[in-house]
Design goal:
The protein is α+β, with helices and mostly antiparallel strands. It has five helices and six strands; from the N terminus they run H-E-E-H-E-E-H-E-E-H-H. It has a four-stranded antiparallel sheet with strand order 3-4-6-5. A two-stranded antiparallel sheet has the order 1-2.
C-alpha cells in the first residue's frame, strides 16, 4: 500500500513544482533569467522558447543581457519581450539586447503579492484535492476488500501527514516570494 502513498506524494510534488514555476514568472525588483522562461519567439517558421534561441545572463542585480545564437533573431526577440506581460523595455544594440529592470512601484508590488497568494491558494486546493482522491481510492480498496480497515486508517493518517507537510511547503514558498517582492 506504500505505492498508494508514493503515487499521491508524487502528485503533490508536481503541484509544488508548478507553484515554483508560477512564482518564477512573477517579476520582482531584481533581474532574473527565469522571468523569460515562458516567452516565445518567432524563430525559423515556428515558435521557440527564448532560452532555446539565446543566452540569457544577469550581470547585475537590475540588468538582463540576452545574446541570441543568431543575430538575425534580435528583432524577433525584442518584439517578443515588448509584447509580453512583463512590461519591460529592451534595448537592442545590434549584437545583444539589454533589459534594465526598473524598481517596482508600491501598487505593482501589492498586485504581485496578491498574484502570489492566489497561486499559492490554488496549490493548497490542488493538494487537498489530491488527498481527497487518495482517501476515495482507499475507501474503494476497503470496499473491494483489498485492504483492511486498519490499513485504510493507517494510510489515511499518513496521507494527512503528507498533505500537512506539502501545505506547509506552499506556505513557506509564498512567504519567501512575498518577502522577495516587497524587498526594496
Amino acid at each position: 500500500m506504500d505505492d498508494v502513498l508514493k503515487r499521491y506524494e508524487d502528485k503533490m510534488k508536481k503541484t509544488i513544482a508548478a507553484l515554483e514555476d508560477g512564482f518564477a514568472g512573477l517579476r520582482t525588483g531584481r533581474a532574473s533569467a527565469a522571468l523569460f522562461d515562458k516567452i516565445r519567439v518567432d524563430a525559423y517558421g515556428g515558435k521557440s522558447l527564448l532560452k532555446e534561441v539565446a543566452n540569457i545572463s544577469v550581470p547585475e542585480a537590475r540588468l538582463v543581457v540576452i545574446q541570441p545564437w543568431d543575430k538575425a533573431m534580435l528583432g524577433e526577440i525584442e518584439k517578443a519581450i515588448r509584447t509580453s506581460e512583463l512590461s519591460l523595455n529592451p534595448s537592442n544594440d545590434g549584437k545583444l539586447i539589454r533589459i534594465s529592470i526598473p524598481p517596482l512601484t508600491g501598487d505593482r508590488r501589492k498586485e504581485l503579492v496578491k498574484q502570489a497568494k492566489t497561486q499559492s491558494e490554488q496549490a493548497r486546493v490542488a493538494i487537498r484535492n489530491i488527498r481527497r482522491d487518495g482517501n476515495d481510492e482507499l475507501k474503494k480498496l476497503l470496499k473491494d476488500s483489498d485492504i483492511t480497515e486498519d490499513e485504510e486508517s493507517k494510510i489515511s493518517v499518513e496521507l494527512q501527514k503528507l498533505t500537512d507537510r506539502y501545505i506547509s511547503i506552499v506556505d513557506k514558498s509564498v512567504k519567501d516570494k512575498e518577502k522577495e517582492i516587497t524587498e526594496v
